[in-house]
Amino acid sequence: MPQRNDIHKVLIIGSGPIVIGQACEFDYSGTQTCKALRSLGYEIVLVNSNPATIMTDPEMADVTYIEPLNVERLEQIIAKERPDALLPNLGGQSGLNLCAELNKVGILDKYGVQVIGVQVDAIERGEDRIEFKETMNKLGIAMARSEVAYDVDHALAIAEELGYPVVLRPAYTMGGAGGGLVYNKEELKTVCARGLQASLVGQVLVEESILGWEELELEVVRDKDNNMITVCFIENVDPMGVHTGDSFCTAPMLSISEDVQKRLQEQAYKIVEHIGVIGGTNVQFAHNPKDDRIIVIEINPRTSRSSALASKATGFPIALVSAKLATGLTLADLPCGKYGTLDKYVPDGDYVVVKFARWAFEKFKGVEDKLGTQMRAVGEVMSIGKTYKEAFQKAIRSLEKGRAGLGFVKNFHDLSKADLLEMLVTPSSERHFIMYEALRKGATVEEIHEITKVKTYFIEQMKELVEEEEQILQFKGQVPSSEILVQAKKDGFSDQYLAEILAVEESAIRKARLCAGLEQHWDAVHVSGTKDSSYFYSTYNGLDHNPITEGKPKIMILGG
C-alpha cells in the first residue's frame, strides 16, 4: 500500500491524564493508529502527556514526547519536528480540541501542517453546539429543543422557557464533563457555572429533558470517496438520563426493530457525509418508543470510548482502519478475508456483546453514588455470549468486585419490595443488583420499568433469571438435576455462584455438569481486515469452533 507523496511525517496527539477506563480505551485506539501508519511507511511523531500508556512504548512511534498537551508546547514540537500532517481524530477529545486551537491561532498554516482524517471545520460542526444545531437543521434531522447560553443568567431564561428539568451540555468536553441534568434554578446556577468553565469556548447548550427515552448509537466508518459502512449498532439498556459511559449496552441491538435501525442508519450517514469525517464517527440518538420520534443527541467525529467497544465487539479495528483511510486509502483498498474488501462489510455476528461499567465510588470521599449525564465510571468490562443472559452474567463476574452472580449482593435480599423500589428511584451503580432482588420479592416488570425506564425486554430477561434461580434454590444443600444444571450453565450461571447459593462444594457442581456432558466451547469473532484471524470467546451454547493444531509447539500468553 503506497503512502501519499505529500506526507512523510505525521503528528499524533495521544490521550492525556484522564480517568482509567477512558485512558485504556484511547490507548487502544492510539496503538492501533501508530501501528497502521508505520506499516504504511510513515514516520510518526507522538505527543502524549500520560507516560503510563502502551502507545508511549518506544517501538510505537519514531519520536515520542511526554509533554503537557497545550498549544505552546505543541508549537515547539512542530517547529522542531516539522511534520507534514496532523491526525487529530484518533487522540480523543484532547486531540480534536488542540487541533482546533492550533488552527485558530495560525500555527498549522505557519508551519505548513495539513490536517488529515477530519476537516478542521468539521470539528466545529461536530463539537460546537451552535454549529451542530445549525448543521442538523440544514439536514432536516430532528434534535431536542435547545438553545446555547454563554452565561448563567441566559441559561436561566432558556430553562424557564423550556421547563425543568433541563440538560446542560458544555461544548468541547468529554464524558459529559461539566454538564448534568438539573431540576431547579439553584442546581442550574451551580452546574452551568461549572460547565462554562469546563467548555473550551465558554458555551453551554440548555436542552429539554428527554429522560426515559431509548439511547442508541451507531459506529460509522467513511472513506474519502464517501463510501460508508456501519460497524456496529449499540443499544443502551439504561435510558436517557444516564450517561452512555455509565449505561450498560448490548451489541447488536436486541429490542429495536429493523425499521428503526434502518432510519437510524440513514440519518447517521447523512450526518457523517455532511460533517466530512474520514474514518470512524460515533453518532448517538434518542428514540421515544411511545410516538416513534428519533432525535440526534450528539456525534463524536473521532474514535471514542464507544469506538473501542465496537472494535472489540465486532473484531473490526476502527482506529487502525481509520488511520489507513486518513492517508487516502479507501474501504475497497483494504482486504478482508471474510468479505473480500471492507466496503462489503456488514455486522453479522451470531453472538451478543454486553458492556457493563465499573465504578469506584468507595475511593472518592464525599462523592454520592448517583448516576446522571456526567460520566462516573472508571472503566468497563465487555463480555461475549451466544445469548443475552449468558453475556450479561459473564459481564457481572468480570467486574472484579467479588460477585459471582446478580443475587445476594450486600443486604439487598434482606430488604422489602417497597424499600427496594424506593432505592431504584435514584439511578446508582447498584441499580441492576437492586432490580434483581426486587423481582425476587415480587415486583412486576411494569413496576420496575415505570421507575427506572429500563426497557421491559431486559427486565423480562432478568425476571427469567430470577425465576430460574428460585427453581435452583429448591435443591439447597445438594446438586440439582442434570436438566436444571445444563439450562443454568447455558443461561450464564457460574459453577461458583451455583455452589454459593446451594451451599455445596464448587467441585461437586463441576463434576456433575461434566458427567452430564456439559463443557464450555469456544467460538470465533473474525478480525476484519485479515484473511482468517480470529479471537475466541467461551460459551455453553452451541458447538466448539476452535480448531486445535496437533504436533506444533504452543505458547500461552497471559494478558491483563
User: Averaging pLDDT over every residue, what do you get?
Assistant: 89
Structural class: alpha+beta
Helix content: 25-40%
Q: Which strand order do you get reading across the main beta sheet? A: 14-13-10-11-12-17-18
How would the global form be characterised?
A: globular
Number of helical runs?
19
Radius of gyration: 24 Å
The largest sheet, given as strand count, sense and whether it forms a barrel, is: 7 strands, antiparallel
Terminal-residue CA separation:
33 Å
Query: Strand percentage, roughly?
Result: 15-25%
Describe the overall structure.
With 560 residues, the protein is of the alpha+beta class. It has helices at 20-39, 71-81, 92-104, 107-110, 120-127, 129-139, 152-162, 185-198, 258-275, 305-314, 318-326, 388-398, 417-423, 431-440, 445-452, 456-472, 482-490, 495-502, 506-515; strands at 9-13, 43-48, 63-66, 85-87, 114-115, 146-149, 166-170, 180-182, 204-208, 214-222, 228-236, 249-251, 279-288, 293-300, 335-336, 340-341, 352-358, 379-385, 521-526, 534-539. A seven-stranded antiparallel β-sheet has the order 14-13-10-11-12-17-18, sandwiched between helices. It has a five-stranded parallel β-sheet with strand order 3-2-1-4-5, with helices on both faces. It starts with 8 loop residues before the first strand and ends in a 21-residue tail after the last strand. Residues 17-23 have low confidence and may be disordered.
Label this structure with key terms.
single chain, 560 residues, alpha+beta, 19% strand, globular
